[in-house]
Amino acid sequence: METDQALLNAARRMDRNALVRIFDLYSPALYRYALRLCGDPMLADQIVGDVFVKLLEQLSAGNGPTAQLRSYLYETTYHRIIDEARAARRRLPLEVTDWLPHSTDPTFLQLEDKILFERIAQAIRYELTHDQRHVIILRFLEEFSLRETAAILGKQVSHVKVIQGRAIAKLRGSLEAYHGRITMPSSRIRSIPKTLGI
Questions:
Q1: Whole-number Å distance between alpha carbons of 81 and 75
Q2: What is the domain partition of the chain in residue ranges?
Q3: How far, in Å, CA of 184 to CA of 67, rounded?
Q4: What is the distance between the terminal CA atoms of the chain, rounded to a whole angstrom?
Q5: At the N or C end, where does the chain have fewer CB atoms within 10 A?
Q6: Contact status, residue 98 vs residue 32, Cβ threshold 8 Å
Q7: Given 3-state DSSP classes, what are the helix, strand and coil percentages for the chain, each rounded to the nearest 5?
Q8: pLDDT at 108 over 60
């Protein structure tokens, strides 16, 4: 399978097959990322389309990324989401169901687990700041490194660490408060944050 760099080099020569392959590889993940943040399937689709239009425009002009294609695409998507949020002047919603990780473990999909994940999703949606939400999504759902996340968000790695730490503390506090209101084995409560890295 071709590497990001090989694909990018071919795309910079405007190789049609490489451009199609890049779209096929990255558009589903970028769509999920955009949808998690904007909550609107049509808008998410439009944002991803805009990202690839920008990539084509940049490459055809001899500009655009020369390395780190994946990070470049996520960074462009991030900025388009920010632009849309500013234009709409509304808070970015999250779809609860998109936060449920996929697993083949049948115990994972039990009702209590779904309820806890819904609680985590609500906490991410309503209790985290805009930056904290982006960091949690990029780090734990999209699985970017700290350095990649910092590059996408245009921040220093040390700043991303601080944002991540505060977000995790808020999520932990929210789960602990929630745990006090429900009757569920504490071992199950403890297993949920570990799945999300919190």
A1: 10
A2: 4-88, 96-196
A3: 48
A4: 33
A5: N
A6: yes
A7: 75, 0, 25
A8: no
CATH code that applies to domain 96-196 = 1.10.10.10
Structure confidence at residue 78 (pLDDT): 87
**CB-CB contact of 111 with 93 (8 Å):** no
What CATH code is assigned to 4-88? Answer: 1.10.1740.10
Give the tokens for residue 135. 């960091």
Q: Is there a contact between 78 and 130 (Cβ–Cβ < 8 Å)?
A: no
SS3 assignment for 16-42? HHHHHHHHHHHHHHHHHHHHHHHCCHH
Residue 104's H or E segment, with its range, is none
CA angle 149, 159, 86 (to 5 degrees): 70
Residue 163 has pLDDT above 80, yes or no: yes
pLDDT for res 179: 59
